[in-house]
Amino acid sequence: MDRQTRSAQRKDSSQVTSSTQADVIIVGAGHGGAQCAIALRQNGFSGTIAMIGREPEPPYERPPLSKEYFAREKTFDRLYIRPPAFWDEKGVDLVLGTEVVSVYPSAKQVTLSNGSKMVYGTLVWATGGDPRRLNCPGGELAGLHPVRTRADCDQLMGEIDGGVRNIVVIGGGYIGLEAAAVLTKLGCTVTLLEALPRVLARVAGEELSAFYEKEHRGHGVDLRTGVAVEGLEGEGRVTGVRLADATVIPADAVIVGIGIVPAVGPLIAAGAAGGNGVDVDEYCRTSLPDIYAIGDCAAFACAYAGGTVMRVESVQNANDMGTCVAKAICGDAHPYHAFPWFWSNQYDLRLQTAGISLGYTETIVRGDPAARSFSVVYLKDGKVIALDCVNAVKDYVQGRKLVEAATSPDRMQLADAEVPLKELLPA
């Protein structure tokens, strides 16, 4: 297949016909879907591949949206996972600006939002999730922004360019904290609201939460925990956020960062097993024949969380699952057992997380948080299960090996920042 032929295969939703088919259809053009297509070609797959994406852009990196892109430190063309021409060169047919609305497993067919149908040999579901919306009065007002897509960020950036300065961020997870850090850098007045008693409560220990709360307040963020949003005020556009105690916080715009809802409706409607996402086995297969699921929307038994069935929302997980599925399609199936890791950039702080701290029973702090370089080590039944490392790259690199080896090191040595973690590995 020459390049001209491949280029002709590139479609938008208006060009899809009822006869379109592909050996592998990948639903979702994010990190997982893109990596699956790349890995298919790297592993010698010569069949036809179609990737269906809701957005009009070719696959791009999502994490920089709330960081470098939002802060105007990176232009959008630097966010592409691969240059746009790459997909044509590799024979990957991009079907953009549309989405799958129904799946028919017995016919191996999907229906798109424009009414067109596509037939597949193997289907890979890589749709991620949709931003969770506020369920309160005023949730339909203009001026509310998720931070999930380029369009989300472009709209908010346009409002800031137009003079919006007083912004309320709802949600004290990583998305909310990263957005608050960038907005502060842009000169905005930021109020951050978290319903739980501390930020990052679902993913980190108290030590890390306290550190980031202090950092954000030190940078001028009005950070409030343990507060409930009762509703939003405004005529057509939001002008304030009303709390449960009747306090009204003025707002020119509101960022809603309260998590995602897995985008698996069509699969569940087609009979796939699932609840919080779609359930997959150790090879990322759903309960439906010839249908895989990967990334944020896939729930699996995570070996690094004691076998707990869970979704892992990370670029690492999406990429590694994509590779796992590609190898299985190419006849080289191996159970998914990738090591989980995460990161977050806020101000001049680089947080790197190794492992999953779910169910930890003890924490040990290495170093001094006041020095802005330290690690929180999470243990369960004496074994190291995860680390949060703030500006502590060596701890991160060496600490992940402690997690992989399921070590039970001496606590005094573990707490001593002068003792390299690699020295605590079993001989």
Automatic annotation (TrEMBL):
Please list the cofactors this protein needs. Answer: FAD
Q: So which residues are the signal peptide here?
A: none
Which UniProt key words apply to this protein?
Answer: FAD, Flavoprotein, Oxidoreductase
Q: Name all Reductase C-terminal domain ranges.
A: 341-425
Q: Which domain of life is it from?
A: Bacteria
Residues forming the FAD/NAD(P)-binding domain are 23-322
Output the PANTHER family linked to this UniProt entry.
Answer: APOPTOSIS-INDUCING FACTOR 1, RIESKE DOMAIN-CONTAINING PROTEIN-RELATED
What protein am I looking at? NAD(P)/FAD-dependent oxidoreductase
Q: What is the lineage of its organism?
A: Bacteria, Pseudomonadati, Pseudomonadota, Alphaproteobacteria, Sphingomonadales
